[in-house]
Amino acid sequence: MDLITASLALCLLVVFLLHYYSKQAKNLPPGPTGFPFLGCIPYLSKYVERTFSQWSKTYGPVMFLKIGNQPTVVLSSFEAIHQAFVVQGVEFSNRYHTYFTKCSCEGGFGILFLHPYKSWKVQRTFGFRALMGKGLGGNSIETRILTQVEVLLQHLKQKNEQPFLLEDDLLASVANIIGDIIMKEYCDKEQNEKLLNYVFESVKSIRTSAFVFMAVSMFPWIRFFPPICGQFNEMKKGMKIGSDIFNEIIEQHLKDSEFHEARDFTDLFLLEYKRNTPGFSKKQLLYYLKDLIAGGVETSVSSIRWMCLHMVKYPEIQKKIHMEIDSVIGPDGNVTLSCDLPYTKAFIQEVFRTSPPAPIGVPRATTEDLYFMGYFIPKNTQVMANLWHVHHDPTIWPDPTRFDPERHLDNNRQFVKSDKIIAFSIGPRSCIGESLARKEIFLFFVSILQKFDVCGNKEHPVPCMKGAPGIVYSPYPYKFVMKLR
């Protein structure tokens, strides 16, 4: 028995040493060694980006580690992220695929996990133009947003200063905007109850299923064991429901094909499909719609919730924003994207700095073996950008833990947009919906502050400002009180 134990220990030691020295021999970036099979998982906290940030103080801005069996490079400075995602953007343009991503998009359909680069670039160019309203008939993007802003304001007026969860009403309004743009469908219509439930369940999954996502991505076999098995099957069931809903919408659009101008993103896509344009299939459209819904709702909703939480915590900042809105727009003026509100914009940018929606973004992958900043990085290495670290880097932001909108104003009290705040990532594979999200966030937030005092509730007057770890960095649920001004 002792001989067997000793042999096993020796084998493990050999595997460990081979793992360690092979990394050194290839001139990979420095980083924590971790354990065979598990990598650095035992060392990670629930706030992965903060663990990475601490490690970068020892290993530098380009760090190599293994997460499970996945070779991973973590970039933890603006310079390193810019070099990889902008200067060498094509070489870092793939997505890192795991069992879970292949399961969720059938191997790479849609936009989020699509590669190779040439296929993705065609879909990105098409999608970006469509989301900006290019080629769409009807109202402008700004008008579509403001329509849903008014719906939300009416809901808030009915709360009668009672504590409530803002995300419930906000979620439907934001989902209606993306639904209007991409498929002319509204979640709050009675006949669209299935779509509304799907959106709510998708957001819930994004908020609560990060552990399942990571576990199945790293160890696919774990999906057969409880409790992962039950949760994973529920996620697959939700994916199937979504596919059924969007397939029905696509088929209905094909039946209504006698249109003279495109009504929405789906119409524009189907025009390419009918022309037999390479890459424009019904399956690609199905997963494109799912990606746009998943990515286009929760990030905006979470950002607006963060802003309202800061209004409760910092009433003096809320007072300044009220004064600016009153002086520029007035209590009954029209809120538009052209409104000159430098302090309010500075506040919004500070929220993006302190609470980026996706602190480590969506992992990318190298397209080939390459040398980067003096190090060798093999093909298909997972690459993570620690956006949270850049936003809290003391060499860029003095006293980075202090919340201070003033840091984004110049000597003339004018707003200064910072290229060091990269909440939506940067480079070719940055968030396709960034422009739409920024418009939504500005118009919703300013409209709420124009009409309401955002207050805490008696039971919990001071909200928790630490976000829930997950795929999206969301605030914990909090009941606001909205008082008409």
UniProtKB/TrEMBL annotation:
One of its GO terms (molecular function) is oxidoreductase activity, acting on paired donors, with incorporation or reduction of molecular oxygen, reduced flavin or flavoprotein as one donor, and incorporation of one atom of oxygen. GO terms for biological process: organic acid metabolic process; xenobiotic metabolic process. InterPro entries: Cyt_P450, Cyt_P450_CS, Cyt_P450_E_grp-I, Cyt_P450_sf, Cytochrome_P450_fam2. Heme binds at residue 431. SUPFAM superfamilies: Cytochrome P450. This is Cytochrome P450 2J2. The lineage of its organism: Eukaryota, Metazoa, Chordata, Tunicata, Ascidiacea. It comes from the Eukaryota. Transmembrane segments: none annotated. GO terms for cellular component: cytoplasm. Keywords: Heme, Iron, Metal-binding, Monooxygenase, Oxidoreductase, Signal. Belongs to the cytochrome P450 family. Its cofactor is heme. Pfam families: p450.
